[in-house]
Amino acid sequence: MNTKTIQELVDRYWDGETSVEEEARIRAFFAAAESLPAELEQWREWFAGKDAISLMGLPAQFDEQILVYAEKLQKQGRIVRLKRIVMSSIAVAALILGFYIFSFELNKPNQLSSADIENYELIKEMLLLTSATINRAEDTLEEGLDNLQVMNEYVNIN
Amino acid sequence: MEIEYFKLRILPLKDKLFRKALSITESAEEARDVVQEVMMRLWDKRGEWSSISNIEVYSMVIAKNMALDRIRRSGYRSASIDNAKPPTYSDLQHPDRSLERKESAAMVWKVIGMLPLRQQEAIRLREIEELSYAEMAVQMNLSEAQIKITLFRARQKIKEIYLKNKLPR
Asked: What is the chain B residue with the closest CA to A15?
């Protein structure tokens, strides 16, 4: 780029008529120029300074730090997901096992112990005895009632 | 997959984000912290990447808000021209670390700091972030015509500073 062209671009720059691309060309020109005529030299600091700013950035070391953070979080995320899968699997397995045991217990034939049978027989006998005593008492009461009716009829006749 | 996308699409935005944060905080250390926070937040939100239409615009907005928030919290940067501090360059990666270039860059920040606030923002968006008039209009909530006038006035003022040698040496 010759000095005439750059002078025209600079004039248009100050008038706010340049595009972003043209402004980048101006910056690069001033940053690279060895010696310049006085009318252009006066702008060198501004344009070369902006060029220096446009090249500012963070070192590659920064990328490494961020990637370490990201990979660490990703790893933690994987572990958390794995833990969730394991816990869910254990919960499902426990549920299935519980259901199986419950249904097994329901379908199992009654197997009573000898003590249970003895207790059952004893209670049965006691209930039968109680029942026989109640029956006998009922008979006695009915008999007494009959006697009372006979006595009543006798009193009414006399 | 996510880490690859992050490496290819998001991490390369770091320099642009850095310059954005730097233009607001005027501190390389603060700007670096902002970019780090932005990157971490973007990674934490990796499940939402597909719903973000423009990841670059999205990350620039986060960086801007974080940088402004830092200024508000720390009161580091003053809007006053007299108190405007140039950024430090101690940890910056410059292809050319010559003193002259560093001084030129520092002078640019100082000159920008001499402008009224609206013109400062217009110059930063155009000169540092290289936004188009349309993009600047959205960012500054102004019409494109207003943007062109603001930028024109800002450049005329800068030209005058250099011509009349009013540089803050």
From this structure: B152
Do A73 and B43 lie within an 8 Å CB cutoff? yes
What is the residue type of A64?
E
Closest CA to B160 of B131, B125, B119: B119
Within 8 A of A41 by CB-CB distance, chain B residues are none
Q: How far is A76 from chain B (nearest CA, A)?
A: 12
Write out pLDDT tens, residues A106-139: 776 667 788 888 888 899 898 998 888 888 888 8
Output the CA–CA distances (angstroms, integers) from residue B59 to A75, B72, B131, in the order listed. 24, 20, 15
Distance CA B102, CA A90 (A): 63
Residue B38: pLDDT above 90? Answer: yes
**B97 or B60, higher pLDDT:** B60
d(CA A65, CA B11): 11
Cα gap B125→B118, rounded to integer Å? 11
CA–CA separation, B138 and B10 (whole Å): 22
- Residue pairs between chains A and B whose CB atoms are closer than 8 Å: 116
Chain B contact present for A55, CB below 8 A: yes
Contact between residue B91 and residue A59 where contact means Cβ atoms under 8 Å apart: yes
Band (B167; pLDDT cuts 50, 70, 90): confident
Q: Do B6 and A42 touch (CB under 8 A)?
A: no
Among chain B residues, the shortest Cα distance to A22 is held by B130
pLDDT tens profile A8-27: 999 999 999 999 999 999 99
Query: Which member of B18, B156, B158 has the closest CB to residue A46?
Result: B158
Q: Is B98 helix (H, G, I), strand (E, B) or coil?
A: coil
B31 in Cβ contact with B21 (< 8 Å): yes
- What is the dihedral angle through the alpha carbons of B9, B13, B14, B16, rounded to the nearest 10 degrees? 180
Q: In b/e form, how buried is each residue of B33-53, taking b as 16+ CB within 10 angstroms? A: bbbbbbbeebbeebeebeeee
